[in-house]
Amino acid sequence: MDMSMGDSPMPGDNLIYIYSRKSKEKSVDPDALSSDKLLIPPTFINRQPWLKGYFENVANVPLKESDVLVKHCFYDPLKKVYVTDAREILTDLIEPCGFFALNSYRTIGDSLSDALGVARADD
């Protein structure tokens, strides 16, 4: 979901969810995806994975309230605090908790490899 300017690490970035659901088909019923079944925490990323062909849009459906975590949590490594996607400081960690930083397709690849228990790609 696109974040408004000022609420994310970089204007125009995307907050993505990567689900733990497996499918042999590219198209998956969006109702089968659940925000409580994420493979990695919510992640901020730019449009490069789509531009380079690593990511592909397979559907475009309006988000329902139940599609989104009640509250996002990110660790801000510069301020050393937990924050929401709107940079509100949280008193406690809320899982799943990502990093308040712009990720690349490479760092997402590393996170996916770690979550799946496979070796990371070589540099």
UniProtKB/TrEMBL annotation:
- Pfam families tied to this protein: Imm26
Naturally occurring in which organism (per UniProt): Actinomadura rudentiformis
Cite the InterPro entries for this sequence: Imm26
The protein, known as = Uncharacterized protein
